[in-house]
Amino acid sequence: MKKTTILTKASALLIVTVMFTLVLTGCTKTAVTTADFTALAQTKGYIVEDASSQFSAYDYIKEVTIVAPQSLDYQIEFYVLSDAAYAQSFFENNKTNFEMNKSGTYTDSSGSGKNYAIYKLNANDKYMFLERVDNTVVYVNTEKENKEAVEAFVKELKY
User: Fold this and answer.
1) Cα–Cα dist 31/34, whole Å
2) Which one of 66, 104, 112, 156 is most buried, by most CB atoms within 10 A?
3) At residue 129, what are phi and psi to the nearest 5 degrees?
4) Which residues, at least 6 apart from 74, have a Cβ–Cβ distance to it below 8 Å?
5) What is d(CA 52, CA 50) in angstroms, rounded to the nearest whole number?
6) CATH no. of 31-157
């Protein structure tokens, strides 16, 4: 009888430990590399452009890759910044710019975890998406009808 009680307490402790670990790991995301971003875009048949030279005046922006479907209906921008602090500032500045589009009817959502933040806005027939993971940022500002395609790409990216 005592062995059952000890086993039950040990099992309960194990379950609590596993749940706690899952909660902690659920609050972080893994940043992708430019190569990962580019590879996914290429499998989708997207046009890929290295736009880093357009941002050479900003030493904290290390890499910029822009991808777009063949139809050029929208583009998804991927930024690698020098560190997470710059990425956070970049994210917040762009979020503020997006929020200036709030008028009339709009919906927005946001979330964050240990190493990431996300913001989505639907306003004035536009869809805006912004996500930071560590020192990377995905940026989209497009027409509302492209929302599903953008979200599908981002989901595959695991952002």
Assistant:
1) 10
2) 66
3) -135, 135
4) 68, 140, 142, 143, 146, 149, 150
5) 6
6) 3.40.1000
Calculate mean pLDDT across residues 47-64: 97
Q: Which residue has the tokens 């880093």?
A: 52
**What is the separation, in whole angstroms, between the first and last Cα of the chain?**
49
Domain ranges of the chain: 1-28, 31-157
Instruction: Please tell me the predicted confidence (pLDDT) of residue 85.
Output: 98
User: Does pLDDT of 66 surpass 90?
Assistant: yes
Written as six digits, the tokens of 7 are 């086993």
pLDDT digits (tens, 9 = 90+) for 115-151: 999 999 999 999 999 999 999 999 999 999 999 999 9
Question: At a CB cut-off of 8 Å and minimum separation 6, what does 138 contact?
Answer: 76, 77, 78, 79, 129, 130, 131, 154, 157, 159
At residue 157, the pLDDT reads 96
Q: What is the pLDDT of residue 31?
A: 97
Q: DSSP letters along 4-69, please?
A: HHHHHHHHHHHHHHHHHHHHHHTT--PPPPHHHHHHHHHHTT-EEEE-GGGGTT-TTEEEEEEEE-
